[in-house]
Amino acid sequence: xxxxxxxxxxxxxxxxxxxxxxxxxxxxxxxxxxxxxxxxxxxxxxxxxxxxxxxxxxxxxxxxxxxxxxxxxxxxxxxxxxxxxxxxxxxxxxxxxxxxxxxxxxxxxxxxxxxxxxxxxxxxxxxxxxxxxxxxxxxxxxxxxxxx
Length: 148
What we know:
This protein is mainly alpha-helical. It has a single domain, classed as Winged helix-like DNA-binding domain superfamily/Winged helix DNA-binding domain (Arc Repressor Mutant, subunit A, Orthogonal Bundle). It has helices spanning about 10-30, 40-55, 60-65, 70-80, 105-125, 130-145, and strands spanning about 55, 85-90, 95-100. Strands 1-3-2 form a three-stranded antiparallel β-sheet. It is elongated. The model has no long low-confidence stretch (mean pLDDT about 95).
């Protein structure tokens, strides 16, 4: 009876490094699929966050994106000038401003997501059914790891 070789710390380190690099390469390739070529990843992240989580105050956006309020204010100013989001006074606290997507901002997010999904779908077409099954399982595991 033969037993499987034991995984060493070095094996785990190498596997983790290889996985990290592959994840970064795939993320970089997906990020290149954009509705607006000149939009930075940070700007898109703000628009996508607003679409996913709804309107936010400047402070909430800054906290969500883990940047300073002044930095987020610059981002919001730029996106507002481009017509991708709007600011309206908070109904409950007039000192606060609520930031939300405009129709144009929503369109940028929807089209970017469509392009990214389409690119990945075409990449999956070139894989064997077994490889696609493996990636489906990996996606579940990656979600679990990311949630820790």
